[in-house]
Structures are given as C-alpha cells and as structure tokens.
Design brief:
Layout: H1 7-19, E1 39-42, E2 57-60, H2 62-72
Antiparallel strand pairs: 1-2
Bound molecules: zinc ion (ZN).
Zinc ion (ZN) binds near residues 25, 28, 35, 61 and 63.
C-alpha cells in the first residue's frame, strides 16, 4: 500500500501532473469535448495495488472521474428514481437489504 503524499508536497505533485495535459481532461477528447481536469485519478487504485507514480495517473474532469470510478467499482453511479437513493441504498421495500425490517 502506497501512501498518498499529504500537504504541500501533494499539492505540488498534483499541480505537476495536471500540467502534463495543460490542465485538461484526458478522457474528454475521445468524446469530442475539451474540459478542464479537476481530478488526478489513479488508473490502478492505490488500494488495489496501484503505484503513486505519474505513469499510474491521469487527469480527469468531474464527470469522467465519476464514470471511471463507477466502472472500477462495477456499478453505475446511484441515480434517484431508479430505485436507488442518493446514498446508494435501494429504496424498494422488497429488496434483500430492506427485507425483515
Ligand atoms: Zn472528462
């Protein structure tokens, strides 16, 4: 498990990584968009054995970050109105999680 850098070292590292793509999202050009990156994402998450090297990071905008995070965890982002609450819990009374209460 690799520790993330904290404090000013982490800020400098993040700024340097964002500069690699001029601060733009790396995923949006595939979708014909140009969007400012707000997240430095680990391609292989640190808690899945990824390294904290620049080669394991990519710059993502907010919406791309949500999408790749959802893909990594094998589900889509919770969307209200699909039987899933904002907190990610199913709202249906006969869902196994809600049974027997
Ligand atoms: Zn994007």
């Amino acid at each position: 498990m690799v520790e993330r850098l904290r404090g000013s070292a982490g800020v400098a590292q993040r700024r340097r990584r964002l500069a690699h793509t001029n601060g733009l999202c790396e995923r949006c050009p595939d979708r014909g968009r140009t969007t400012l990156a707000v997240e430095v994402d680990h391609i292989v998450p640190l808690d899945k054995g990824g390294t904290d090297d620049d080669s394991n990071t990519r710059n993502l905008c907010k919406s791309c970050h949500l999408e790749v995070t959802a893909e990594q965890f094998g589900h889509r982002p919770p969307i209200e109105g699909r039987g899933i609450s904002r907190s990610g819990r199913p709202t249906s009374a006969d869902h196994p999680w809600n049974r027997g209460r």
